[in-house]
Amino acid sequence: MTNYLKIFTLRPFAKYYLNSLIVVSATVSISLILGIPAGYSLARLQIRRKKDILLFILSQLMLPPMAVVLPIYLLANKFGLMHSLTAVIICHIAFNLPFSIWLLREYFMGLPIEIEEAAMIEGCKSLKILIKIIIPLSGPGIATTAIFCAILSWNEYLYANVLTGPQTYTLPVTVASFWTQRLIIWGPMFAAGVMAVLPVVIMGVFIQKYLIKGLTLGAVQ
Amino acid sequence: MIIRRLDNATPYLLILPAIIVLAAVGLYPFFFSFSASFTSWYLPDPTSKKFIFLKNYADILTDGLFWKSVKIMLVFVLTSVFLEVLLGVIIALVLDANIIGKKIFRTVLIIPMMITPAVAATLWKSMYNSSYGVITYLLNSVLEFFSLPPADFSNSPIWAMTGLIVAEVWQWTPFVVLVVLAGLQSLPRDIYEYAMTEGAREKQLLRYITLPLIKPYITVAVLFRIIYESRAFEIIYLVNQGGPGNSTEHLPLHIFYTGLSWFRFGQACSMSFILMIATLLFVFLFAKKIIRIER
């Protein structure tokens, strides 16, 4: 038990926990706000060069983060966003968006089209259809996407390490930081690890149905 | 697909914000990297950003370290994916049969995937530690019994790589299991019934019906795993920092060190660019299998 108390004295652990929470909630909400319209229009609406756009989004999904870290490091510096949570949030959004758009698009394509056709006959325009009909119907799909975004963001290490500073570390960076150059602070490290992992694992156990559906939906035709 | 003539601009407006964000954080670094890769930029010295044409590319393509990191990356990725798929398919086949406790097993199976890779890496590192590590202790007891040299995860390149592959396989085999299981559960049952009435036995059912039918699912799993593994950073960085010397320093890690430790930014950008092109080529080659553009 003392280990768990120690992590709060050795590091501002509560603050780092809060940092992670802030990053995850901002990332998930903005990803959904940007992703749902994009997913819907790519699923149902007519867009010129849709194939190219989809290919672009797919390529962003596959882009190795390492190839992009260095320019982003400089970009963050130039805008004075170094050591801030904002930079991390923006990066997380950018890397969650392709996957979210993908999942949402697959989900929207699976919805029955009759409802939208009925609404169109009534003279409803796209945006209205999206807000009043699609979103209420998409509870499970949106929940799955949100969960995936949250997990990816919570567990992310590379950008968090590069872009954050002493005030704004997130949890993965903190846990790794217990293994210092001179000394390995074992007890608190494991305690911190447990506390970092617990929310995700507990959540995962309870919502595994959504997780499995999301995983296989993204991968399986 | 619905054709909307009432509001022609709306679809584009709906996508625009998302595309802007993606372009800013995905496309801009791509071009930035491309242009920086032609310079001799040494980060601490802003005046050193001079245009040197293709010298960076010539340097890295003749650099032994670059090719070594590429080789390490290929070894790491291919071995991990191979093992993950092998174990994954076996476990999925076992789980598909009606055994007791299937749901509990599935729940337990998901857990390794959920654990923060950084935390898992730290845990594996402590288990592989020469003085205090659990795995080192147990493994050495077994090895000593057979009079074999002890395993040293921090000093031996082969053991270091093996340790990393084991950790990666442990964490991501569940992904393959889930994908293949989804495939198995969508297979039509009547083929099996027909085959059994024709007198086929278990092994023949497996070899001639099941495996060919789940090949597309295995393919998808393999593709996703290859793409993900080639980006794996936390595990190698945190457990080995590139291993004894640089024997586990794969290409992403090499880029990281070149750019942010040695500050040879121009070279790092050219390596990133090569990595990006390679990944994109790989994706476009297989894009048709993954993308589904309907109607």
**Percent of residues of chain A in beta strands?**
under 5%
Overall shape of chain A: it is elongated
End-to-end Cα distance of chain A, whole Å, is: 48 Å
Structural class of the secondary elements of chain B? mainly alpha
Strand count, sense and barrel status of the largest sheet of chain B are: none
Give the oligomer, counting copies of the same chain as homo and different chains as hetero.
heterodimer
Count, helices of chain B: 12
The level of helicity of chain B is: over 70%
Number of DSSP E strands of chain B = 0
Poorly predicted runs of chain A: none
What is the radius of gyration of chain B?
24 Å
Structural class of the helices, strands and pairings of chain A?
A: mainly alpha
| Count of helix runs of chain A | 12
Average pLDDT across residues of chain A? 80
How large, in whole angstroms, is the Cα Rg of chain A? Answer: 20 Å
Summarize the structure.
The complex is a heterodimer of chains A (221) and B (295). Chain A is mainly alpha-helical.
Explain the overall architecture:
The complex is a heterodimer of chains A (221) and B (295). Chain A is mainly alpha-helical and 221 residues long. Helices cover 80% and strands 0% of the residues of chain A. Chain A contains 12 helices and no strands. Chain A has helices at residues 2-10, 13-44, 50-62, 65-78, 85-109, 114-121, 126-137, 139-155, 158-163, 171-177, 186-206, 208-219. In chain A, α1 packs across α11 (186-206), α2 crosses α8 (139-155) and α3 (50-62) crosses α5 (85-109). Chain B contains 12 helices and no strands. Chain B has helices spanning 10-36, 55-61, 64-96, 102-114, 117-127, 134-145, 157-185, 190-197, 202-229, 234-239, 251-260, 265-290. Chain B is globular, with a radius of gyration of 24 Å. Chain B starts with 9 loop residues before the first helix and ends in a 5-residue tail after the last helix.
